Amino acid sequence: MSSEWILTGGRVIDPSRGVDGYHDVCIKDGRIASESELSSPVRLDMSGKVLAPGFIDVHVHLREPGQTHKDDIATGTAAAKAGGFTTIVAMPNTIPAPDTPEHVEAILALIAQKACVRVALAGALTLGREGMTETDAAALRKAGCPLLSDDGSTPQSAGLMKRIMIAVAEAGLPVVDHCEDMSLSKPGLLHDGSVARKLGLPGQPRSAEELIVARDLLLAGETGCHIHLQHLSSAGSVDLIRWAKDRGIKVTAETTPHHLCLTHEACLEFGTNAKMAPPLREEEDRLALIRGIEDGTIDMIATDHAPHTTQEKNQEWSKAPFGIVGLETAVPLCLDRLVHTGCMSIAKLIERFTTGPAKLLGNLGVDLATLKIGAPAEITILDLDATHTVNVADFASKSTNCPYDGLVLKGKVVKTIMGNCR
Ligand SMILES: [Zn+2]
Question: 116 C-alpha to center of ligand 1: Å?
Fold first, then answer.
């Protein structure tokens, strides 16, 4: 079987090299090659398509080990590939958490066996992700973690977080931060606003996120640690990051397709399929997040793919878990709602899915997010004009907790190449 291909006639957008034009892309033995290296390639017609470096999602819950009724490494990475992602970061809220070198090695062995895309594993910041005792950052790095996070929560003590940042920076890793002050967010179930009042449910104020964003930006400034802020939801958080970047604080940030596309009003229509952490907020927040992702204050879009079973999600608001799946809808949603509405160019959107998230993965030691010769042949192929209807029954993920079922979107992922075109 061939291991050589030429993809011809497509528009290549590769932000890593400032390329946007019509070029052939050649693949040989799993790498991007020059045409002169090929002997008998298979030609594939890419007319009308956009070819981009493989997309990266830095925020995925694979649920294995521990909760494989929701998703597992095989189905979660299949969902990633179907959604256009060739590299993902697996969050540490598995059972057990990757909080010791032994746990990290065991989870990495499962990933090596089952994953169909590249998976970087986020090690835990604290033992059991309990927010009390720091893990051994250097040992977790040695075991194979390129970044550390307690995603789902964050150490509530500023003193502990500062000690962690010092140690994690010393180990050469970024701290990946779920920004939530639990003393303000609990027992809130959705954004503290008119919809929460209408539903008679307790709300989570913006300050629950913004206080930790501010705290950890200040601590990152003091310690020199690279802080990465996850799934930002509020206009104030965007302002704080702008302030920090102006001062040279080492910060990167992500927001999610749902925070860019939906507001708390979605809770009225979709019920607990719009329950997530942090919550969907108001239109002014959504517009500020779009401005932030457009001007680069927010570096990347990440899905926070959080599978839960229908049974779990169908419980009442106070019992249903937080989160929605996102791997298979993220790219078409962003094409439809950000590019086709004129909020941002296709080239910029591709940056936010490639070179943006690659900033967080320097420790992987792989040429990510580029189609330069010699890089791994990881390519996301888009059809910007194809329309399709979201059908959760088609998802590769085991879970279908998604508010977009039945939505018609313009723009889709037509193929994800991971080393070969088969
Ligand atoms: Zn989180």
Answer: 24
Ligand 1 center–CA 213 separation, angstroms: 13
At 312, the amino acid letter reads E
Each residue's pLDDT tens digit, 144-190: 999 999 999 999 999 999 999 999 999 999 999 999 999 999 999 99
CA 3 to ligand 1 centroid distance, Å: 40
Please, are residues 146 and 90 in contact by the beta-carbon 8 Å criterion? no
Q: Does domain 4-49+377-390+402-418 have CATH number 2.30.40.10?
A: yes
Locate the DSSP E strands across 92-162.
118-123, 147-149
Which residues are known catalytic residues? 304
Matching residue, tokens 């009042």: 197
User: Nearest-CA neighbor of 111 among 158, 84, 145, 69?
Assistant: 145
Q: What are 332's two structure tokens?
A: 């078409």
- How close is the Cα of 60 to the center of ligand 1, in Å? 10
Cα 203 to chain center, whole Å?
Answer: 25
> What is the DSSP code (8-state) at residue 360?
T
For CA atoms 99, 209, 277, 380, the dihedral sign is: negative
pLDDT tens digits, one per residue of 134-144: 999 999 999 99
The rounded Å distance from CA 178 to ligand 1 centre is: 5
Residue holding tokens 């090659």?
A: 33
Residue ranges per structural domain of the chain? 4-49+377-390+402-418, 54-368
> Taking a C-beta distance cutoff of 8 angstroms, is the pair 302, 326 a contact?
no
Give the predicted TM-score (pTM) of the model: 0.97
Q: Quick one: tokens of 133?
A: 């005792």
Q: Are 76 and 39 in contact (CB under 8 A)?
A: no
Instruction: Indicate if 54-368 has the same CATH topology as 4-49+377-390+402-418.
Output: no
Q: 329: closest CA among 230, 257, 414? A: 257
> 252 pairs with which residues across the strands?
228
Angle between the N-to-C axes of helices 235-246 and 283-295, in degrees from 0 to 180, rounded to the nearest 10: 30
CATH superfamily to which 54-368 belongs? Metal-dependent hydrolases (3.20.20.140)
